[in-house]
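Researcher: Structure for this, please.
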Amino acid sequence: MNNSFKEIHEYRKYTSKAEIHKAINSLIGMIEGIRLDQAINLDELEEIIHWCSMHRHLHKKSPFSEIIPVVDHALEDNILEPDEVEDILWLCQKVIKEDDFKEYYNLITSSIQQLEGILHGLLADNELTETEVNQLAAWMEDHDFLKGTYPFDEIDSLLTSAREDGVISEDERHMLKAFFGNFVDTKISYNVNEFEIKTLQGKYSVSGICAVCPEIKFEAKSFCFTGTSSQATRNEIAELITTKGGTFNKGVTKKTDYLIVGGDGNPCWAFSCYGRKVEKAVQMRRDGSGILIVHENDFWDEVY
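Model: Predicted structure, token format:
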């Protein structure tokens, strides 16, 4: 548990509209994540209280001047009723839908910030239940317009893999927590156990993740291939891509749209694809690139 408020001074610089918008999206996501299992415990309430504490120095600045009092009032009895949750979310949504914010963030950016807030909320009590995993998967289905955006595809792939047999094992929960922890700043969290997250991340290395059933377009798109194909030579794949209007490069560049990962002897699905090209593509996605990492099977499905 991190009870220190030494990071508060860093937030005093976050007074631009863009940063305010990010903070509100984070709160929306956190509350959505906390309530995914239909039960809100004290540890999760403390995480919301901590969010207010981290931004209380802005209590005279809109929209914090409206949101913080509403949250404070709702948490006076240490219980967050469904109606109180809806009131807070309604107010936050009203803020981010104001015309004033549209020039700073689009729907994609806002939704990704909320997704990262949801991951924070899920880890707020250091537990990840099967219900929460399934509810997160449902949220992902409702927000499939985020496909192609980091880290939506990566999370989607991991959830698909974990839920494939209908049971979320302890090992799968730990793997998910390790990956989700990448998007939670434990330094500004009241409860998220930084030591546990780092320990899990040391055990579960999620290096590269292929998108789930990605939409693949060929015309004017750039492709690269890594690994070994079970169906064709690399030259044959390159020729096929070219005949469909795409271009093929031997290496991953800033212009690469798709990195195809060969399936022969490389169990890529869903988080075991490794190698220099994959590593570079993953880093590019982290940096905001739209490059997609695609399993060979999906590539052939699109071709035929």
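Researcher: Any notable elements?
Model: Confidence is low (pLDDT under 50) at residues 1-9. Residues 41 and 125 are 8 Å apart (CA to CA).
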